[in-house]
Design goal:
about 180 residues; alpha+beta; 8 strands; about 15% helix; elongated
């Protein structure tokens, strides 16, 4: 295989892994979304971060599917990080609907909306709601920045058994760049 054909093949493979368009609906998928999960433990704010959030967005009906391998979360706490690493291939899934008609990728004013859906974190299945924000940016490949914020009660997912000194709710923030629609 020639060098230019190999480069074209590799570029095609990379593009297919980071962006996906299916059927008549505009559906895009990426594997590099960012998630921040924060909680108060005693008098300290504990933050777990991953930049390996799988995101599938349906632009036509503003629905989404998120998938996160727990082992990709990092806290900076060696005990918690080693505990999270034991959960490789143990996903947290979040599916839902943004409270907008569709995802606009052309220029638009910032949009605030409600987010509703459910989280599956084996063996738990929880209905959750929160707030979202979509802001248009000017870029070659990206159109918008999507931000969603949710709050969870730690007792609902038995997290207080692992972190007995956990106080208050768990805050989940999702940040995702939105690709431009293909013409």
């Amino acid at each position: 295989m020639s060098s230019s054909r190999l480069q074209l093949f590799l570029f095609s493979m990379f593009f297919s892994l980071t962006s996906l368009t299916l059927s008549a609906q505009e559906i895009y998928g990426t594997t590099n979304g960012t998630i921040h999960i924060s909680a108060n433990v005693e008098d300290t704010v504990l933050i777990a971060v991953s930049k390996n959030l799988g995101v599938i967005l349906n632009y036509d009906n503003a629905s989404f599917k998120l998938n996160l391998d727990k082992s990709s979360l990092k806290t900076g706490n060696s005990y918690l990080d080693s505990l999270l690493e034991t959960h490789k291939y143990d996903p947290i899934k979040f599916e839902g609907q943004m409270g907008i008609e569709h995802i606009k990728t052309e220029k638009h004013p910032p949009q605030d909306f409600e987010v509703n859906g459910y989280i599956t974190c084996s063996p738990h299945y929880l209905s959750v709601s929160g707030r979202g924000y979509l802001e248009h940016i000017f870029g070659d490949y990206y159109s918008c920045i999507l931000n969603m914020t949710l709050f969870l009660n730690p007792e609902e997912i038995n997290l207080t058994e692992v972190l007995p000194k956990l106080k208050g709710q768990i805050k989940i923030e999702i940040i995702q760049s939105v690709l431009k629609r293909q013409d």
